[in-house]
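hi! just following up on the protien thing from before. the input was this:
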Amino acid sequence: MTSDSPNNRLSRRLVLVGGAAAIGTLVAGPEIPGAVAQTATPRARRGQAIVGYSQEPTVFNPLMPGNEVDQGIWWNLFSTLWIIDPAGKPFPVLAREVPSLENGGLSTDGLSWKVKLRDDVTWHDGTPFTAEDVKYTIELIKNPNFRVPSRLGHKLVTDIVIEDAHTISWRMSEPFAPYVSMLAWMFVVPKHILGQAPDPNTASFNTAPIGTGPFKWVERVTGDHVTLTANTGYFGSGPFLERLVFKYIPDLNVMFTQFRTGEIDYIGLQGITSDHYAEAKTLKDRTIYVCPRASVENLTLNLAHPCLKDKMVRQALYYGMDKKSIIEAIYYGLPKSAESYLPEENWAFNSGLPPHEYDPDKARKILDEAGWQLGADGIRTKNGLRLEFSNSTTTGNQIREQAQQLLVQDWGKIGVSFKINNMPAAVLWDKFWAESKFDSLMTNTTYTIASDPDVTHRFGSHSIPLKAGSGSNVAQFENATVDTLLAEGIRDTTPTARKAAYVEVQSIIRDELPFLPLFQGVQIEGTKTGLMGFRNNVNVNSNTWNAAEWYWA
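and the predicted 3d structure came back as:
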């Protein structure tokens, strides 16, 4: 996180690697240069922060499928058992300690878990938080009738026992190394409210949530903003602001203008576009951060599409994509080209993947060999099928629209008709995404859960929402070897064995190309000078994760 050089990346981060006998083990990695730390304790709670979001938050039950903007609100309304901090280290939130072999919270075989909880936490309505809430949350996720993005990991939990009001234990039906990381993203919900609802999927809680977090729900004005107010009974440090206002500004240029004029105090999630970076650095009374993210800008391909299911077509598209020009001309050279779904900072990153080549001649040759013949109109056909597909991203993102236009030109040169079909975020992220109704998507995707490299939910054949009812494998990718390797990765007990599995998975994905990687996410964010406490965290999807620490100097 530095305003000068995006290549001055993380240099000393601790990565949670997990494993049945090594869950909780930490491996040295890079740290965030220039991180803004809490330098003083505010004397009193005061003021508000207006957060600019280019997509509208719409999902307020934190167990339901949502995206990064929704998570930005969840981190402030709700609490997890623990969180993974910017250094990659888990630290307790609702739990008194993160379970480990050393403190007796984990058995040596990784099957028995015990979590000791804080006894000073209350829900926003004043009801005490207990182990019953944790038990209810896990069981709700496991419930096949409740709509969740994935039951991966949670479905292995058995024999949940409430040992006392603030101690809970369970067993896993088999070792599952990523569970420590997954629990860092599991927001606990109130049993006394959701448990009384006839159907948690449609409960009033979902539009007026009650949590244990540092801020409480006030209102949502559809199409405009969400307001939260300080939870004065919060068990942790802070909050030091009286209010948080999440303002929806769908046009990124308009959002930057409002940041420049002072109408918003923090601009994040998609943030400041690259073409505004030079100007942003000159703004008076503004602090700008270039934040490495765990996400990858990419084109997700729907492998059920009659053209895109052909591996040779996907390979030709990748050779025919001028990634370098997209990165340099549109993103001003700030991001670094990616070949993997994992960020470079991840401990399981495969550094040996073949680098992308822009070679339109090779792309044409591949399509020729695959039987796609060039037509009179310049578009290829095969057995009467035109080599044509569409791409969708959220409306109002001019930078992505420019990238799409370049791809229209790139792929037109090799005989591919590439159509643009953008739509509002609320539409795109609904059934269009979840039911794989798209041809392809241009998105900035975080493939991991917290810091764990397991991607079963993204590439496992049993994580296709259309078939399994949950999961995030909307590309509908199926590969038996990948399934086997992913299964090994979650059972293995040592980081070395786990890494070997994930290195091979990355090689297969790079060859099969269910998605076309562009670059590792680099997000340009900004605050008004004087708004203190901002910290970039690659292990969460929103940098409002610690807004409880924010304050006005």
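The chain is about 25% helix and 20% strand.
Residues 465 and 471 are 5 Å apart (CA to CA).
cheers
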